Amino acid sequence: MNSYRLHTEIEIAATPEHVWSILTDFPFYPEWNPFIVSINGDIKHGAKLQVRIQPNGGRAMTFRPRLVVVQPGKELRWLGQFLFRNLFDGEHRFAIEPIADGRVRFTQSEHFSGLLLPLFQKSLAQNTKTGFEAMNRAIKARAET
């Protein structure tokens, strides 16, 4: 089966708890997040979210992934599927890792797979990766002010 990974990271001068509080404060996403413009849903394992993304140069899209990992201060991960499993799946991961006193590495990555992946791979490599990087810079700016 086709598979593709995106990986971005940024260092942030903040505690893991502070970065987590921004990452999981979904109602404030429209104020600061240029890529994921809204998320609705409960932050608990197994919960369904409603996520709206606006890739730079791409079309806005809403999807409904299920949370598969919720580790406060460490990791938030969801799995989204288009129509049904193995057609076009994306497992999105946010990780917060302490690297020094008062600093963290914030990683945003996604593993894509499925039969339709070849149709979307160019857009993922350009627009989606650019969106991840823009969000990383925005969460850094918010956490450090």
From TrEMBL:
Range of residues in the leader sequence: none
| Protein known as | SRPBCC domain-containing protein
* Top-level taxon: Bacteria
* CDD domains reported for this sequence: SRPBCC_4
Q: Which residues form a coiled coil?
A: none
The record's listing under InterPro entries reads: Polyketide_cyclase/dehydratase (IPR019587), START-like_dom_sf (IPR023393)
